Amino acid sequence: MLAVRFMFISPWDLAYVVPVAFIANAIGVNTAYHMYFTHGAFQAKPSFRVVLAVFGTILCQDSLIQWVANHKRHHRHVDVPDRDPHTPWQFGESNWRVYTVGLFWASVGWKYARRSTSKAYYAGSLLKDPVLRFFDKHFVVVSYLGLMVPFAVGYALGGWQTGLKGFAYFGAFRVFVGYAFTELVINGFCHCVGSRKFATKGRATNISSLAMLSMGTTLHHNHHAFPQSLSTAVDGEIDPMQWINGFFAKCGWISNVVHPSAADIAAKKLAETTGPRYDGALGR
Ligand SMILES: [Zn+2]
Ligand SMILES: [Zn+2]
C-alpha cells in the first residue's frame, strides 16, 4: 500500500520537489564540479569551497577529482573517438550509430567501460589539496549521506512515511534528474543535436530551447567556446545560473568571476550558425 502511494506525487509536492532538485543539481554539477573545480571560473572562500565539494559529491556521479579528470580529458580531446571519454561519435559518423549506440555510450556505456582517466595527469593540482582529497576518497560515504540525511530529517519530522518521502524526493529524484541532465542531455544530445555559432574544436552544440529548464547548461557549445566563462550566456542568451551565482557573489562567497570580453566573443563568432556536423575545426 505504501509503495502504491509513492507512485503518485501530488501537484503540491511537485511544486517544491522539482525546483529544489534542479537548483541543488545546478549548484552541484554546474557551479561546483564543473565551473569551479574543473575550470576555475571564480575564486571561493575556503568555507564555501567545502560547501561546493559537498553539493558536488552528493550528486552520486563520481568522486570529485575523478569527475574533474574525466571532464578535462573531454575538453582536451573533445569528440575524438577513444580519447574523449564519452563522445556520442565514438562508433562512427552515420546517423543511426550516433543516435543509438553513440547516445547510449555517452550517457551510460562509458561509465561502465572501465577505461580509467589518470587523476594525476589531468587533475594533479587538486590532488595536492587535503580537503579535496578527503572528499574524493570518501565519495561513497558522502554520497550515501546525501541520500540518507533527507530520510533521517523526514523520519524525525513524521516517522517512516515522511522519511521515505524525504529519501524519494530529495535523494533519489534529485540524483536521477542530475544524472539524466549531465549524462544524457549534456554528454549526449549537446554533442550531436542543436546548433553552433563559434569556431571551436569538436561538435558541442547549443540547445537554446532548453536553456531555462537546464539552468543554462544546454548552451554547451558556448561553454566549449569559452570554457572558463562562469555563465554560458555569452551572446544574449538566458542562463538562470547567472542569478544563483550572482547571489553567491553578492554574499561575498565567490569572487573574481571570469567572463569573456566582447572582443573575444566577436573574434570566435562564425559567419553563420551551423549544425553539429560543422567540423572545420574538429580537433584530431
Ligand atoms: Zn562537452
Ligand atoms: Zn567544461
TrEMBL record:
Transmembrane segments: 14-36, 48-69, 96-113, 134-157, 169-193
Homology family: Belongs to the fatty acid desaturase type 2 family.
Designated name of the protein: Stearoyl-CoA desaturase (Delta-9 desaturase)
Organism domain of life: Bacteria
Pfam families, per database record: FA_desaturase
Recorded GO MF terms: stearoyl-CoA 9-desaturase activity
UniProt keywords, alphabetically: Fatty acid metabolism, Iron, Lipid metabolism, Membrane, Oxidoreductase, Transmembrane, Transmembrane helix
